[in-house]
Design a protein that fits this description.
Strand content: 15-25%
Helix content: 25-40%
Largest sheet: 7 strands, mixed
Strand order of the largest sheet: 3-2-1-4-5-6-7
Number of helices: 7
CATH architecture: 3-Layer(aba) Sandwich
Radius of gyration: 16 Å
Number of strands: 7
Shape: globular
Low-confidence stretches: none
Length: 194
């Protein structure tokens, strides 16, 4: 039986990419087939290479190039895309081609604290500044607007008084690492019926 291949789009250290690669390493039906990254200095490149996952380093121009991206994803037989800390806006042609086959993980409870520039410590600092009682993660389908696709899943954790953005980030990352692999699996395996 042919495995379903996932492409992970990432821009940073690759902690979520690592969890996904490890989770699907010996999976019978799903494999991580490609990591796409928009920074040649990102830690995710080393993560992918250490696990023998092919890497494609792109820029905004290549991402916007329909022919290039379509050929790249075809070459690696990609069925599903996971954005895991990917900071560029995905172009409409890719969103259309991967309708309900592309998800993003966001480190806050959308619709709060989403949109352009809302990543990394900036998100957690805003949660603290606005005195939210809780925060968490949102897994959602990707559409043409940052962080506005249909929500698939949310997990929550409390925001303690006097909590630092760094400490909050660690708590939220634990939720990401726990839930992203299993929800990716669930959605990828469902996709064949859509």
């Amino acid at each position: 039986m042919k495995k379903r291949n996932i492409a992970i789009f990432a821009s940073g250290n690759g902690t979520n990419a690592l969890r996904l690669i490890e989770y699907f390493k010996n999976h019978r039906e799903v494999a991580v087939g490609l990591v796409v990254c928009n920074s040649n200095k990102a830690g995710v490149i080393d993560v992918a290479r250490q696990h023998n996952v092919p890497v494609s380093i792109i820029n905004k121009t290549l991402l916007a190039n329909n022919g290039f991206m379509t050929s790249l994803l075809k070459l690696y037989d990609i069925d599903f895309i996971v954005l895991a800390g990917f900071l560029l806006l995905v172009p409409p042609f890719l969103i259309k081609a991967f309708d309900r086959k592309m998800i993003n993980i966001h480190p806050a409870l959308l619709p709060r604290h989403g949109g352009k520039g809302m990543f990394g410590l900036a998100v957690h600092q805003q949660v603290i500044d606005e005195k939210d009682a809780e925060t968490g993660i949102t897994i959602h389908y990707v559409n043409e607007v940052y962080d506005q696709g249909k929500v698939v899943f949310q997990a929550r954790c409390p925001v303690e008084k006097k909590e630092s953005a760094e400490k909050l980030q660690k708590k939220v990352q634990e939720l990401e690492h726990k839930h992203l692999p299993e929800w990716t699996e669930k959605l990828v395996l469902q996709t064949r019926f859509l």
